[in-house]
Queue: 2 jobs
Job 1
Amino acid sequence: AGGCCAQRWYDINADVVFLQRDDSLSTVYYASDGINGPPVLGTDSLGFDEAGGLRISAAMQLGAGNSLESTYLGSFNWSDQVSVESPTDNLFSVISDFGQNPFGGFDDTDDAAYAALEYSSSFDSVELSYRQRWVAPNCKLQGSWLAGVRYFYLTEDFRYSTVSFVRNGAMDYDIGVSNSLTGGQIGGDLWACIMPGLSIGGELKAGIYGNRATQRTHIDAVSFGFPVDEKVTETTAAFLGDAKLTLLWRLSQNWTFRGGYMFVYVDQVALAAENFNSAPPFVNDPLRPRIPRIADNSDVFYHGAHFGLEYMW
């Protein structure tokens, strides 16, 4: 029942996935020690640890060697925070060009004792694909091709906070972005039978997507009568591809262990930290006008191990 000539099949599989998130985040400094002093707080201090999530897939046979597959990948959440304190109330903000414009800075962001950055990110993905399988005459190789649709939802939140006891000021600058990617994908897999019940293989999928990206900014400060709220939405083309290397070990007629490594790459998306606008919200500065905008040309790369079981009845 588990020989090399048996066509690959499962009814449902579930994996625990541990992904590392890498991105093309620009280095931006938010606080300096003194007016135009050395930077002491920036995005280069932020970093995401590995996060755990789930991958669940189910297949329904349509005919000889073909099936309809649905897959969910998600429940990941990456987060990090970093802060700096000044016992001499000597932190100056990027919003005032580090205390240079205007000289001495603003009440809510400069002569500060405390400044902090917080960053979080998550995604969920749902796929529906048609797959056609084949087996080579010698049974050592088999594979498939697939075509289908996919929805990928990426959300992020970024906060920049300051507290100035000298000026009785404080500010919370919050940015939230969402990326709704919808499109078609094509791909396939290839498997090699090492021995009956033990196989190794890889899968590759890629597609072009329409990305409806939204950026929301909310700024609240002690000096404000009302918070500043901004929202920008834009639809652009995006790319999404993923790949997996997997080892299958058949434990019984019904159960198979699976483990391997996977990669997910997404291009032309909005990341929260990339959408920070340093133009001051406190005054109308004609040299630095505050114009709401969205930056949705970033990319993000995920990679990590996955382990799980397949069930066939």
Job 2
Amino acid sequence: NDTDPVIYVGLDFNVHPLCGVFCSFSESKIKIVKELYLEDSNTFEAAKEILRRYPYRTVTIVSDDSGNKRTTKSNTTDREILRRAGLNVVNFTNPLIKDRCNNINRLFDNMIIEIDPSCTKLIGDLERLTYDNNDPLLSHISDALGYICWYLMPLKRLRRGAVVEYR
């Protein structure tokens, strides 16, 4: 909802495409309200676009763990670029892919995720994506959804068995 005080953004860092999902979270509902799909782009452009869309809101970023790594190409991490732009970036470690997929499926099964129909890239990705995906353009925006869902409502295992509970 565009009036919620906090907007959460799940981000998956790539050059082509750099993807994200914008959501609100309340009453145990994750509402995906917008998507970000930037072709041939970078983290600076993503930060600009996020701030353009929500200039007066608290924005919390949950990103791919690769955003916390420096490379030989830069002294700055993707997460640091976002922080310097004024965005709140949480420390986050990627869950296992199978756990992230199971979590998303659980949230859909329990009608906890709602996706605005305008999010056509995300919807198309979810409709076509398979576990053994070989299409280099698929999975990135679904990964962004997986990060934000894991952060907001992670799958938790109890000591004995596969019983799940919410945060």
